[in-house]
């Protein structure tokens, strides 16, 4: 079984792109398992991750593809939460969404993306957004 940890922020486009890439990974759906990680930086209403629209959309797309998944939610630093979830699950791959950047900004990743890449002890796939 190939285990993928996917960092899901509040952006639906990022979640969709990440799930598309997971679905397109080699192998059958039955050979893949996904952990969706959503980290609340601020959660005054006490919502759960499954109430976040981007997380629900990602779960629905995985259901439609026949891929088993679970949801991991936490609070604090998103990069730490993603890397910690991947380490705890001994994941094979981390998938995170990149942000649209200006030509000069493309030389650098966003702070969460960069922190995950530098802090992970496993492969990290960064998905893009359409221009």
UniProtKB/TrEMBL annotation:
Pfam families hit by this protein: Usp
Descriptive protein name: Nucleotide-binding universal stress protein, UspA family
Species whose genome carries this gene: Halogeometricum limi
Domain called UspA: residue spans: 3-127
Protein family per UniProt: Belongs to the universal stress protein A family.
InterPro entries registered for this protein in UniProt: Rossmann-like_a/b/a_fold, Universal_stress_UspA, UspA
SUPFAM superfamilies: Adenine nucleotide alpha hydrolases-like
């Amino acid at each position: 079984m190939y285990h993928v940890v996917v960092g899901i922020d509040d952006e639906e486009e990022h979640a969709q792109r990440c799930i598309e890439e997971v679905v397109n990974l080699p192998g059958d759906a039955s050979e893949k398992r996904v952990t969706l990680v959503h980290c609340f930086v601020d959660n005054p209403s006490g919502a759960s991750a499954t109430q976040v629209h981007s997380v629900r959309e990602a779960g629905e797309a995985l259901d439609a593809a026949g891929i088993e998944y679970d949801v991991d939610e936490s609070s604090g630093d998103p990069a730490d939460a993603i890397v910690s979830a991947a380490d705890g699950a001994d994941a094979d791959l981390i998938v995170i969404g990149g942000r649209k950047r200006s030509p000069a900004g493309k030389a650098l990743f966003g702070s969460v993306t960069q922190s995950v890449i530098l802090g992970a002890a496993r492969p990290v796939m960064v998905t893009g957004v359409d221009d």
